[in-house]
Every structure is written in C-alpha cells, then in structure tokens.
Design brief:
This protein has nine helices and two strands. Helix 7 runs antiparallel to helix 8. The model has no long low-confidence stretch (mean pLDDT about 80). The two termini are about 35 Å apart. About 10% of the residues are buried.
C-alpha cells in the first residue's frame, strides 16, 4: 500500500514538473538558447570553477542579453542583462510573486520582505516606506560616505593585484552600512571584523544555488 502511494506521488510530481516545463517553454519560444549538456542542459554554468557571475557574463557576450537557459533537468528560465528591461521589471508592481526557488532561503532569512508572498510583502513594504523618506536618508549620508571611502580604498588595493571578484567587497560594505544605519551598530566588516557572517552568507547562498 505504501509503495503504491509513493509511486502515485512520484507520478503526480513528475506530471506537474513536465506540465510546468512545457508551459514555460511555450512562453519562451523564440528566445536564443546556448548549446547545453544532455539531461543537465545549462546547469554547468552554475557549478563551474569559474563561478556563476563570470559564466553568465561570458554566455551573454556570446549569445546576447536575452537568453533562455534550462536548469534542473530542463526547467527553463530567461536570463536578462538588458538594463532597461531589468529596470522595468524591478519597478513594476505586478511582478512581486517570488519563484519557488526563494522558499529554499526562507529557513535561513525567514519569511520577510525578500521571500514573502505578495499580500504580506505589500504590508511590510508599506510599513517600511517612511524609512525611505528623503530627510531620513539625508541623515544617513554620512554613514554611506564613511563606508564608501573604505570600499574605494579596498577596491584600489585589489586592482593592483589584477582581476578579482567584486561581490565580497560590496557585501562587506553593504553589511556595514545596513548595521550602522538600521541598527546603530558598527561592525567594521570591511576591516576584517565579524567577517564570519559574510563567509557564512556566501556559503549558504552557494548551497541554495547549487
């Protein structure tokens, strides 16, 4: 009996996956799709030693700024690098439903603004609106400047060593600014203090992506 239930569940989940894949593929018909591997298709872009961002940038240079990629046994996604189109999507109020991919991050960061459903997202966003008042932001400009100066010096030093990944530098600067402006706490992550959180965050992100 248990075996039949498990088999039925597998069949249902497979059917749902195939239907969703077909539905998305139909919408993305006509978009350029780079050559991929059998079964895993373009998943190698996310697992190569070169890193996710360099891989995607290199692919965009070859095939354009609107590319169809297939992940997870052929599940298609659309990769956008056109700044105007990305800006339009990020600023629209219609596209606020998160992909199921975000559910993987909920155990780490909670059901907050990043991963919440549209109904909850709108309530939280409305509560946060006063924090983005021009006068409030002007009060925090000194902190932006303080940490940006450190960031610039770090980037200058890194440039002398050749090519490098800018993400760790931006992450540390962002954490310092967020903690000092939102919570009134000085971490000095860019100076090497409390750097473990950044490392753990990157590791958690890598686990979720891969």
């Amino acid at each position: 009996m248990l075996l039949e239930i498990l088999m039925a569940l597998v069949i249902i989940l497979t059917a749902q996956f195939v239907y969703k894949r077909h539905k998305i593929n139909k919408k993305l018909k006509g978009f350029v799709s780079p050559p991929g591997l059998p079964l895993f298709r373009h998943f190698f872009l996310f697992s190569s030693e070169l890193g996710l961002i360099p891989n995607l940038l290199d692919t965009c240079k070859k095939y354009g700024n609107l590319i169809k990629l297939e992940l997870f046994y052929g599940m298609p996604i659309l990769l956008l690098t056109d700044k105007d189109l990305v800006s339009h999507i990020l600023n629209t109020k219609q596209v606020v439903t998160k992909d199921t991919f975000y559910e993987l991050a909920a155990a780490w960061i909670g059901d907050g603004l990043v991963v919440s459903a549209p109904s909850k997202w709108k309530k939280i966003r409305k509560l946060l609106n006063p924090a983005f008042n021009v006068q409030v932001i002007e009060h925090h400009v000194k902190y932006f400047e303080k940490h940006a100066i450190v960031l610039i010096e770090k980037l200058k030093n890194a440039l002398d060593r050749g090519g490098f990944d800018v993400l760790p530098y931006i992450s540390s600067c962002t954490l310092d600014i967020m903690c000092e402006t939102v919570m009134g706490v000085t971490l000095n992550t860019q100076q090497g203090e409390h750097a473990q959180y950044i490392k753990d965050a990157h590791e958690a992100t890598a686990i979720i992506v891969h």
